[in-house]
Amino acid sequence: MRVRLEDVARATGVSPKTVSRVLNDEPSVKESTRKKVLAAMEAMNYRPSPAARGLAGSRSFLVAMLYDNNDNPASTYLAEIQDGVLDACDANRYSMMVCPLRTRGQDLIRRIDALVSDHHVDGIVMTPPLTDNATLLRRLKEHGVPYTSISPLHREHTIGVCMDEQQAARALVEHLIGLGHRRIAHILGIANHGASRWRLQGYKDALAGAGLPYDEDYVVQGEFSFGSGVLAARELFELPHPPTAIFAANDDMAAGVMWAANERGLKVPRDLSVCGFDDTPLATQLWPPLTTVRQPSREMGKLATLQLMDKLRGRGTGLLLQVPYALQLRESTGKVPRGKG
């Protein structure tokens, strides 16, 4: 039989109203009582009815994660973020919905209006590049819906989480320079992503710091997708002096580079060093394993959602947290081929 709220109240010796207050995270409950009730809920496998909670507290206990469906919807990066958002929702007895948007279409505002009116979401988790879509952000503010942002370009008065991607990209390219590489190419991400700008600037900073020239021929546009990595690599391989190392702005494109290198008969890293960014599970599924930057995407999704929940509960206005990066040096990068430095 389904465990009821009254069963939890009876087991803990408190009133059903107190259990309801714990469920709605009201501040009027003693911490010792809160812990006792939560422990009983866990032990009894109590799962509250979202509809009943909403009626009792005028809240839906529903968080929506928005992503741009134009931009690589199968991204492992987005999947990692989604898992982190779900972790935070599960831990706080919230429900989660995932909502793809086509920002290049004409119905963006209609979709947002429908999301707010039909589902009555308590808050929204924004992923890049939606984090910087002025039209979308303005509409959410008009509706009065709180939101949290992952890796926003504009960071003042923002709730969410970020990482110093520019410095991380610089450190990665400095690793290639330290291996003797001088002809280092970069495959850009989508132009309207803050991540694309930061990773390009980090690439430029590393070259400038080593006294190496910035050559536009070695910078090719990509789209954060495997296929765009293949096409960009093929273009770079046709240069009179092809690169000895390629830094792709994410792991999916780096995988495309490795595929294109194999197609051309190049061995990684003997003939070409390849590195990516994000350290998605794909990075260790490739052969050789990919040198990359670990961006803790799942943790970022979780932390951003927790900041949103703090705001929803009136526990401060929420913060923009910065998480650390870590270089993951693996077998896809090596010393420059003899005579090609």
Q: Which percent range fits the helix content?
A: 40-55%
Which structural category do the helix and sheet elements fall into?
alpha/beta
Separation of the first and last Cα atoms? 71 Å
Q: Strand percentage, roughly?
A: 5-15%
The largest beta-sheet arranges its strands as 2-1-3-4-5-11
CATH third-tier fold name of the largest domain = Rossmann fold
How large is the radius of gyration? Answer: 24 Å
CATH class of the largest domain: Alpha Beta
- Strand count, sense and closure of the main sheet? 6 strands, parallel
**What CATH architecture of the largest domain would you give?**
3-Layer(aba) Sandwich
* CATH homologous superfamily title of the largest domain: Response regulator
Number of strands: 12
User: How are helices and strands ordered from N to C?
Assistant: HHHHEHEHEHEEHEHEHEHEHEHEE
Number of helices: 13
Shape from CA axes?
Answer: elongated
Poorly predicted regions are none
Overall pLDDT? 88
How many domains is the backbone divided into? 3
Description:
It is built from 13 helices and twelve strands. It has three domains: 5-44, 434 Repressor (Amino-terminal Domain); 62-162 and 297-324, Rossmann fold; 165-295, Response regulator (Rossmann fold), CATH 3.40.50.2300. The chain is an alpha/beta fold. 43% of the residues are buried. Helix content is 44%, strand content 15%. Helix 6 (108-119) runs parallel beside helix 7 (134-143). Strand 1 (62-68), helix 5 and strand 2 (95-101) form a beta-alpha-beta unit. Strands 2-1-3-4-5-11 form a six-stranded parallel sheet, sandwiched between helices. Strands 7-6-8-9 form a four-stranded parallel sheet, sandwiched between helices. It has helices spanning 5-12, 16-23, 31-43, 50-57, 76-91, 108-119, 134-143, 165-178, 194-209, 226-237, 251-263, 282-285, 297-312; strands at 62-68, 95-101, 123-126, 147-150, 160-163, 184-188, 219-221, 245-248, 273-275, 292-294, 320-323, 326-328. The mean pLDDT is 88.
